[in-house]
């Protein structure tokens, strides 16, 4: 009897905990994203995330700098007609007089901005995928430092998605958000980059430690639960090196199918994912890329026919110049490209017409010290119907009121009877279908 009682009262052995790597059904129901076991991909890990973060650190910094330079190229502090972000305040502290050389300056800047942005899309998506478990961690805030990290992460993710989405829609000329693209993208860029810097400052030490410990070592579990590696990973179907190779191949594919729109000839045909790619729009001297057509801008033959005349205004009063009279003035030539904010550009075209500084002299200003000028188009629809150019742009001898291109009269879609062409300026500053030039102080 005593022996039986002693046997019954022996302590029962404690059950052994199930290993973390067992399939989810054996570990119980884990159905919410807040549960660490919900995210089971073995690819996630601090080193995988760190590699993507370093690529984005370099790429997004380049995008931010080239974006600010692109904004400066519009001379937004010159006149209200150029300022698409009214009320920017101290955010315009860096603005400067945009130069006229080298002539390919804006072509290079905007080509890098748009092409690098497109190529970074797979990297950005992979980065967001790698850290998505952290968006659902509980409790949401554990300390002040953790609160700052979560806020920066939310602003970073939201800002990145907003900037990339609005930028891609603008490139495709299918912008559908309310309001103007320029202030939304400008202010969104500042919010995004501020969050990006804050998040980088908070996570850079951890990323450096991870990279020093071996960038792509497989099967290394995190030292703490704050890292993105899953506590119970599923069986691996691809290594982290393989996942990075897939991301890199996606970026190269995006690059190969978009960069060509910045070049003429066979390379442009490779730009399958962007407007102004594919075949050239026509043959002959006027057979190069067009942003907006005369029909799109509401320009008719009545606006540009025999009754057309350019009005030049200044201290000498108003002077009306027919196209024949403009052709009778001294003609000058310049080889200049057209580069657009959407990232596409043309090679140098051979423009011929009257220098802007000669027209300023006709308006009553010294030819060697011309002022700013307000350019007005006869177009009825579309943005930048009125544009202001700085005095340094007017003064440059390559800045023309172009009447001909590549040895032939301008076509209607390229701005007949007269258009502006200025070195290193964004394409929309090279106003087409010019009807009036007002020289004078615009600031």
From TrEMBL:
InterPro entries: Mopterin_OxRdtase_euk, OxRdtase_Mopterin-bd_dom, OxRdtase_Mopterin-bd_sf. This is Molybdopterin-dependent oxidoreductase. The keyword tRNA-binding does not apply. Residues 305-439 form the Oxidoreductase molybdopterin-binding domain. The chain crosses the membrane at residues 48-74, 112-132, 153-172, 184-202. GO terms for molecular function: oxidoreductase activity. Keywords: Membrane, Transmembrane, Transmembrane helix. CDD domains: SO_family_Moco.
